[in-house]
Design brief:
The protein has helices at residues 23-29, 33-57, 65-84, 93-110, 114-129, 137-153, 157-173, 177-193, 197-214, 217-233, 237-251, 279-295, 299-314, 321-324, 333-337, 347-350, 370-385, 394-413, 420-446, 450-466, 470-487, 491-504, 512-530, 537-550, 557-570, 574-591, 594-610, 615-629, 633-649, 653-673, 679-683, 687-702, 706-710; strands at residues 7-8, 327-331, 362-366. It is elongated. With 714 residues, the protein is mainly alpha-helical. It has a 3-stranded antiparallel sheet with strand order 1-3-2. The chain has 3 domains: 1-192, Serine Threonine Protein Phosphatase 5, Tetratricopeptide repeat, CATH 1.25.40; 195-264 and 276-335 and 363-368, Serine Threonine Protein Phosphatase 5, Tetratricopeptide repeat; 374-710, Tetratricopeptide repeat domain (Serine Threonine Protein Phosphatase 5, Tetratricopeptide repeat). The protein contains 33 helices and 3 strands. 51% of the residues are buried. Helix 6 packs parallel to helix 8, helix 21 (470-487) runs antiparallel to helix 22 (491-504) and helix 23 packs antiparallel against helix 32 (687-702). InterPro entries: MAU2 (IPR019440). It comes from Entomortierella parvispora. Keywords: Cell cycle, Cell division, Chromosome partition, Mitosis, Nucleus.
Length: 714
């Protein structure tokens, strides 16, 4: 989740106290023109934020939103520039430093003037360094924090790390623990961007330990959630599950979630002393939980958490511009219990209000915006439902609606200023759109709608080119095209596309989706080599051995199920084949994967038929009914044809005739989809269609889950 994971927002206005009309001449006569300029600048920024809120919630109501927003930001900048050059005996050095800090913040957040922002920060640091005592201590730390953000944006990570050391040392020296939290988050983020997983997790653990020591419970939860998300994006599933086990007792107030696979794995206290009351933190915990559950194949648990996520989102509707942008407050209990501390950050001072009006001290956390979480939930809902093709198709509905919402977000951003934040947000939505389109193409493949699948893949390709994401998604597009070709019986072309996919993912060790895509392309290639047209059992064994080796340390239910099906075709003897298929049937039930279940029933029926087992009819009939009900027409056609052959062999002519009548609409659908290809070649000579259906089913089960989706963020 890169930048949007946790961006603790300490950039607050200098002064927001409204002034009476009579105060303006009084301030000027007292030589406090800078206070007036501050107030005008902040009033302009408040208006700009209000416009942003209205334009985002009601895109059609603000036709001239961009121009007005620009003017307001420009006015605020001009006021602060005038203030920075003002010569007045009442304007202290601290005031000059504040002015340049606020100017730098606005330039950084609302314009593209990174160089100008950095120059203002440097000037402000020189002013602060000349001030003796602790008067400018908070200003100094804010300047360091902004400087770190600039270094990160310009990819000068060494300078960012050096500044972090300096800032953290100063915060620790003054025992300003709220600033220490901030710098722990910044440091973990920098480690994350430089692919230092150990450094990132160690830093977050230090932050969680400090929060626990200080009694800041919600912050400890936040550190753990971020650590779990980083683990997920680093493909370190063991660490992600460790953090989930820590979090679940505190987050699962209704006791509907569980991540314990066996009694030996249970390491969390059964009776936590308290539960996390933050609804926003619960939302991010549920996203992490669903991602991990999908990854390890616990679809039932993922669906339970998805229901909880929908409810949590309904309870966290944004009330203002800050909440809309994903900013929420975490109270600092350590300050609340010790308000007499001189170091304590008073809420009133934080907002420019008189200290006596201060309420609960807090820090502001910036995570994903509400619209980002909302759209991500659509994607998660589509993925959770993708294996279940029972009509109406929930997965297709979720993904299509999600694509509409993401497209609407782009139309809103068309009115926005061209800032780093907007560009980062648009890239985030671009990556999310690509993920939605490619998952939707999988859904169309599973329902045997090749025309819609092709159209969706073309849209995804166009989108990736327009948004400059082709290098990121070329392997995924290649895999989708390969599966479409394989399902359509164009096996030579499918092999070429799978080869392209494996070549694109040759160095994909740090990319979990790319790593899985390579394995999936290998399994699908093996399926083709199992068929008559490209039969090469040695190649099949080599490919499957490599795929098993690649995933030996990752206990993925999805891949285990897929490999059991392939093993049933490659192992010599009907008894081993039956054993593998029985295991695959259990796993497909756990995954709630209707497509995989239909296919396994078909293959089991074939095995039982060859061994003259009485269960053959039951397996084939169940597979036929199940496949037809869930739109798996290829498997339904194969199961129906095999069942008819079974009746003819056993001299059950009436049943054979009845089955032939039931097969007709299924065969017509398959015949139309394959563009009038001869059905006998597809069913009897063509393990290709069955293998192709296996490929797309495995794609549904094994496609990397929201870890990769979360990793779509800049």
């Amino acid at each position: 989740m890169h930048k949007d994971l946790l961006d603790a927002a300490m950039t607050t206005p200098i002064a927001t106290t409204p002034m009476a009309t009579g105060e303006v001449p009084s301030l000027i006569s007292q030589g406090k023109t800078h206070v007036l300029l501050w107030a005008i600048a902040e009033d302009c920024m408040n208006q700009a934020r209000s416009l942003c809120f209205v334009a985002t919630t009601q895109p059609t109501s603000q036709a001239e939103w961009r121009e007005r927003h620009h003017k307001l930001v420009f006015t605020a900048v001009k006021c602060l520039v005038a203030c920075s050059t003002l010569e007045s005996p009442s304007m202290m050095q601290v005031d000059k430093a504040k002015t340049r800090l606020r100017l730098a913040q606005i330039l950084f957040e609302e314009t593209e003037s990174l160089d100008r922002s950095e120059a203002e920060v440097d000037k402000a640091i020189l002013i602060v360094d000349s001030i003796e005592g602790s008067a400018a201590r908070d200003i100094q730390l804010r300047l360091y924090d902004l400087q770190i953000q600039i270094y990160v944006e310009t990819k000068r990570f060494r300078l960012a790390k050096n500044t972090l050391k300096l800032a953290a040392k100063e915060a620790a020296k003054q025992e300003l623990h709220w600033w220490m939290y901030q710098f722990y988050l910044r440091k973990a983020h920098v480690f994350f961007l430089t692919n230092d997983v150990a450094g990132s997790l160690n830093t977050l653990n230090q932050g969680a330990a400090l929060a626990e020591k200080r009694g800041d419970f919600d912050l400890k939860m936040a550190f753990w959630i971020v650590a779990g998300q980083y683990s997920l994006m680093f493909s370190n599933w063991d660490h992600a599950m460790v953090y989930l086990r820590k979090l679940t007792p505190f987050m699962d107030q209704d006791h509907v979630l569980d991540i314990t696979e066996s009694p030996q794995q249970q390491q969390t206290p059964s009776t936590p002393t308290r539960h996390c009351d933050s609804k926003q933190l619960r939302v991010f915990f549920l996203i992490l939980y669903i991602s991990c559950m999908l990854r390890c194949g616990n679809t039932t648990k993922a669906l339970a958490a998805l229901t909880a996520l929908h409810s949590a989102l309904d309870e966290t509707r944004p009330k203002d511009a800050d909440e809309l942008q994903g900013v929420f407050k975490i109270p600092l209990q350590s300050l609340l219990s010790r308000p007499q501390e001189p170091q304590a950050l008073q809420q009133g001072q934080h907002q420019g209000l008189p200290p006596q009006q201060a309420e609960i001290p807090y820090i502001r956390i910036r995570w994903m915006s509400f619209s980002q979480v909302y759209c991500l939930t659509y994607l998660l809902s589509g993925i959770c439902s993708k294996a279940d093709m029972t009509q109406p198709m929930k997965s297709e509905q979720f993904l299509i609606e999600g694509i509409k919402v993401v497209d609407r977000e782009f139309s809103v951003d068309d009115f926005a200023t061209t800032t780093l934040h907007v560009r980062g947000k648009q890239r985030w939505f671009s990556l999310l759109m690509m993920s939605m389109l490619l998952h939707l193409s999988d859904v169309f493949l599973l329902k045997f709608d090749l025309v819609s699948a092709e159209e969706t893949i073309l849209k995804a390709t166009y989108w990736s080119k327009v948004c400059g994401l082709w290098d990121v998604f070329k392997w995924r597009v290649s895999l989708s095209v390969g599966m479409m070709m394989q399902l359509g019986g164009r096996l030579d072309e499918a092999l070429e596309w799978y080869s392209i996919c494996t070549s694109h993912t040759a160095d994909s060790h740090e990319d979990p989706e790319g790593y899985d895509a390579r394995s999936l392309a290998m399994i699908n290639t093996a399926l083709i080599y199992c068929g008559d047209r490209h039969f090469n059992m040695q190649k099949v064994k080599d490919l499957i051995t490599e795929a098993k080796t690649r995933h030996a340390s990752i206990s993925s239910t999805n891949f285990r199920c897929a490999l059991h099906i392939v093993d049933s075709w490659t192992k010599e003897g009907l008894i081993p084949a039956r054993q593998h298929l029985q295991e695959a049937l259990k796993l497909s039930s756990t995954l709630l994967n209707t497509q995989m279940r239909s296919l396994t029933l078909l293959l089991l029926g074939n095995v039982y038929m060859q061994t003259h087992d009485d269960q053959a009819e039951k397996m084939l009939m169940t597979g036929f009914v199940h496949a037809a009900k869930t739109g798996n027409m290829v498997v339904a056609a194969a199961a129906g044809s095999t069942l008819k052959d079974l009746y003819l062999r056993t001299s059950q002519g009436i049943k054979a005739s009845q089955q032939a009548q039931q097969n007709k609409p299924v065969l017509d659908t398959v015949d139309s989809a394959f563009q009038l290809r001869h059905l006998d070649r597809l069913v009897h000579q063509g393990q290709p269609p069955l293998q192709a259906q296996t490929a797309t089913t495995m794609a549904t089960a094994a496609t990397s889950t929201p870890a990769a989706t979360i990793n779509v963020v800049r």
